[in-house]
## 1
Amino acid sequence: MRAMKVLVVSDIHGNYEALNAVLESAGGWDSLWVLGDLVDYGPEPHVVVDVVRGLDPDLVLMGNHDYAMAYGADCMCAEEVRDLSVYTRQFVSARLLSKEQLEWLRNLPRSWSGVVGGLKVFAAHGSPRNNLFGYLRPSLPRSELLLALTPSMYSLRPRPVDSDVVLVGHTHAQFDIRVDSIRVVNPGSVGQPRDGDPRAAYAIVETGNWGVELRRVEYDVMKTVRKLRELNLDREHLSRLERILVTGRL
């Protein structure tokens, strides 16, 4: 298989302006991988779904917010943003997404594995252990990282997935780390970064040598804010959503 330039994105969260900036900044690609969470928080989940579908990605995974919206379930997200999630799902995503779009979200896979560029790759929104809801953070102790990389929620001992590379999203923070023999990459969040940098985050993977470049791009944050304001949301929730977008922090 020839070497490819892969655009890897995650956690777009209804922010079309950020997604568009990433697509323009990436400068073309051979393959597009989307690691989940197209909806909630942002003002245009319906537009994001249509744009992603129109790009015909080679991989689109279900995120915890996609799951919650499609199935009317709890997103099980971090406690400090749970109310924002519930609020925007009810008053934005549920109002703007069509039945056909919800059906498409409902049928997204929760994980993927395969061989790319000679390496075994595993991808999920959360972690191998918990595809939708598991948080895999570099700050975790090694023992907890190894357990998060174990592809069974019922295993009591770490038995990491048989992969060379693991791709995840969910934390809204970029990283590229090695846990023993496994390289773990998170492209960060396109639409709602929470690592102190409000620029849209993504990753470029060159499969020939498995080079990974973590990138950021500025976008018109205030345009996204104005779109949120046009939805006539509750002042308190709107203020918090604006603050996250502007500062890149919770």
## 2
Amino acid sequence: MMLKINDLNTYYGAIHALKGIDMEVDEGEIVSLIGSNGAGKTTLLNTITGVARAAKGTVVFKGRDITNIPSYAMTKLKISISPEGREVFPELTVEENLRLGAYIVKDKGAISAGYDRVYDLFPRLKERYKQQAGTLSGGEQQMLAVGRALMSSPELLLLDEPSLGLAPNFVLMIFDMIKEINKQGVTILLIEQNANMALSASDRAYVLENGKVTMSGEAKKIASDPKIKKAYLGLG
């Protein structure tokens, strides 16, 4: 078990944002978390990474309790995040943004290998490596955000809404890359509003509604559930 979340509760002031979340992510899986806006998806991610404080419950990574661990310690644990909204540094070049993703890596050979890996996955970034990140398209910035997260060679990659605001061709490209990254041995927890794409790419899935997990299981089974089809897939 790579990631195990048990009875996780988080508050924002008086608002009970997460209400007893239980979740597991096994090594080598792609697990998606789907839900509408305001369901608590990003709050869960923020609680896992220590940005938001858990009031109750535990987050365990590879057998170690990391509940409320400082965010800056995540990378050393081999956990990386590609945040919602991409959050690239617009004045820095593509290469400089990637280098920041490897700020804890001291081995120059490992940093060079990180560049090679990212540029193999995202050839567009190699073409634009000296270009300021702020001049890239939304899809290219998303590639950069994911690439930056890979620079520290994570074992667990957290992806927060990677398809948000992207043109359909970029959405397909990003999801192809998610599957390729997983094939390279990276376990992925995917938070995504595009339920159709998320479920088609994932091994298992959780449905979050109003801060609670209302359904979990194999992604294919969840995708075929009539309630999910109607609520999230625009079918039925």
## 3
Amino acid sequence: MISTYTTHTGTSVIFDVVVDDILQNLSTEEINPNNKALLSLVNGFESGKWRRQQFEHFIWNNIKETALSQTEREALIGDEKTILTKSAKNLRLVSGEESGGEIGEILLYGIMKKYYSALPVVPKIFYKQNRNDFAKGADSIHITLNNDGTFSLWLGEAKFYNSIDDARLNSIVDSVHNMFIDDKLRKELSIVTSTKDLDLFIKDEVLLAEIKNKLSDGISLDDIKQQLHIPILILHECNITKDNTDSFEKYKENIMTEHIKKAEVFMKKQDTKFSDVYNYHEVKFHLILFPVPNKSILVDKFSKTAIFERDEN
């Protein structure tokens, strides 16, 4: 189910799209306003097992989009080993409840690139590592260039949870709501215009000037909300995935049912929380759900690989 609400290209993707539509078209309940979409993605199975290496390859193939600046990426074209090592050195590898958070951030950058053709104008892991003032705020910042010559701004949130129960859904709703505190939202706009990557990505000088003007310091935040998209990635451990013995098509049906239910719950919570956000209905929200069989295994493998790559040089 593909909606004109999304901007997917459908090319060069390795994950199966289970659901891709606005929530009003998916839900049997009344969902308002019409500014919410669900993208449900799943990794494949082979010989009855979840394809862990395929998922891990996607993460490491996309790490440079968020861990290195565009200048660094261009300077290292063709030197994939150095790219990997430098990217690994910019990882924070936090522990505890937030462990694996950077896997979610990298996955979101990969999804934004592969499924939305988005430009990673602010490589957030790179800036979080190198500048303390970037440590808070959105987990991803992207721009998409629309067919009509306009642009859209994407401020993303990414989480990796052991489950998607009510407590965790409440937590991410709170995180997204915090983006809309005026000072924080204005700071995100200033980050976009202050990075060199924007100039490297946007070659059209007229469009570049328009983007910088739209996001400039003196602009009213009300003026940007029609162009604002919020992708919310929840990478989550999932018993359906862990225990799957069905055919892949039946598995996807089960995930579809589960993800639509979770999206309904999430968006109702968001509607309640965002009752104080001016022009909330003008902002487009994209809930992206991605199930995995075991969080701890993925986090452990990721951390060990990152530490190994760091020690290479």
